Amino acid sequence: MTHDETVAATTVGEAPAPRPRARLIDVATAAGVSPKTVSRVINDEPGVLPQTRDRVRQTVQALGFVPDRSARELKRRAADTVGILIDAISDPFFAAFVSVVEELAVAEGLSVIFASTGYDAARERTQLDRLTGHRLAGLIVAPVEVEAETLAGLGARFPVVTVDRAREGIDAVVIDDVGAAVEATTALIARGHRRVAFMREDVSYPTVSDRLAGYRSALEAAGLPFDPSLVVTHERFGSGDAAEAALLLERDDAPTALLCATSLAAIGTVRAIRARGLRMPALVSFGDFTLAEVLEPGITYVDHDPRLLGAAAFRRLRERAERPDEGPVRIVVPTRLVPRGSGEVEPPTGTAADPSTGSGATAGVAVRSAGSEASADAAGVVAGDPSPDAAPLPVLSEPAAALAATALALVHPQPAGDADVSAAAPIGAP
């Protein structure tokens, strides 16, 4: 027997060496991708190109890789981060919103990561992929164009709540944009204003269009014609001041009142008015902003308190984690109109009186503002006699509260929410 034969005989009696179990890093190396990409493919997460996904799956099969289920469960239990996707942290509303969510999360031992969309759908997709690559305990998102189906898919992995804008079948925390705009516009009309302008923004969000619908509804309820030339658009990424507002206020038939659909539109409008030395019209901002109260006059605003929205969104996120099979809930956070002076500016002499009587058209109306009452008598609404050349203007026969109710009956796309929100502190408190 030769030496070679001896070796062969010895080998025949031995069991083959066991094949080492493939690890995730082995799959990543063989497929030429990162371990994170392999993990995303295995967990069927978004953010991987189709051809890369196919290559990884083929490698998994070829190497016989089996995911460690116990490790995955441990990873899931260890999720301790809340993701937030918002429009822009430079927006005063979302800056305050993120702050309150972070405060509540930290109190429960959670951390917060946030990203911004910049109002761009492509960037929204990228940022969603980045956020959902983390081990999230939940996601709060102000959607731009992301569809309900995508959010529902994410909701199978962790709780998802939308804020400010709703998606069908997804928990949402919103405000009554139509109702709040009706109240703000009606308050201006009740002050004696008959030419009320609307400053919207160049973003295709339903919040802005709903506020425009509320504005139009309030005009209709008061018997005032809708003038499309009084609806102008603020370019959010423009020069900073709202030149559109200046052009509007420099017209011979300039409006005497202006409702700004967002706080950023209001900031741009105030800058334009100050820069050009124009007379301040009666102005209401949809949302507060820094130093608005120290301007002269202070800026009257619709208070959709970001702290209440943030608290409600975080609370719903935690409730969803505890009750994952519960149906979607739409929470409507209350708003109120906060007077500071700008919204109470009266029309110039002769612009809002009733020519048929020679007196203010809104004598004796009651201006309601979410639980607070203020009256405006004839002398307080219009100062001076009407211009002899003024065109006849409608006389308001109903109190402002009744006008608001009528306006809401004309246009109101959504009913009240499924859950009440109680303020931990008064709305608008410091």
From TrEMBL:
> What keywords were assigned to this record?
DNA-binding, Repressor, Transcription, Transcription regulation
Enumerate the SUPFAM superfamilies for this protein.
lambda repressor-like DNA-binding domains (SSF47413), Periplasmic binding protein-like I (SSF53822)
Record keyword Transport present: no
GO molecular-function terms, A-Z: DNA binding
Q: Where is the HTH lacI-type domain?
A: 22-76
**Record-linked InterPro entries:** HTH_LacI, LacI/GalR-like_sensor, Lambda_DNA-bd_dom_sf, Peripla_BP_I
Q: Which is one Pfam family of this protein?
A: LacI
Task: Give the start-end ranges of region Disordered.
Answer: 339-369
Q: Which PANTHER family match?
A: HTH-TYPE TRANSCRIPTIONAL REPRESSOR PURR-RELATED, LACI-RELATED TRANSCRIPTIONAL REPRESSOR
Q: Can you say what this protein is called?
A: LacI family DNA-binding transcriptional regulator
Gene source species: Microbacterium galbum
Q: What is the lineage of its organism?
A: Bacteria, Bacillati, Actinomycetota, Actinomycetes, Micrococcales
